[in-house]
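hiii, so i know i said id send this last week but things got crazy w the move. better late than never?? heres the sequnce for the chain we talked about at the cafe, plus the structure i predicted for it. fair warning i was half asleep when i ran it
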Amino acid sequence: SMMAAPMEKVMRQDQLMLAAIAASIAAIAITPLVGGFLALLALAAIVRGIAQGISQPLMYSILGRASTRHGASVGLRTAVVRLASIVTPAVMGVAAETWGIEASFYLVGGVLLLASGALALAAHRFR
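okay and structure toks below
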């Protein structure tokens, strides 16, 4: 969270959050590519950790400013995260069973990156 505040001076909050989320997704999706190289796998884990360390505090900050009922917005975010933690592994498992474990990382990562791109376009359009 110490990195999020200075980075907000360089990028708008919505852009920074979407970039951090996309970086986190990409770092996970490339796991099969870098899995054989410990240094690259460690680098991907570091990128994911930094990206998540930026996006999570930023998300709470945005929710807190956007909502007069902070508890309701955080509760909604928690519900969505829990739903995603149930749905994503199930979808990834089906993809792994159908096309293989490596393809499941690319497929789910690609879908999530496309969804992030669509969200970025929507945020830009409704800004």
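btw The chain has a mean pLDDT of 88. thought thatd interest u
miss u guys!!
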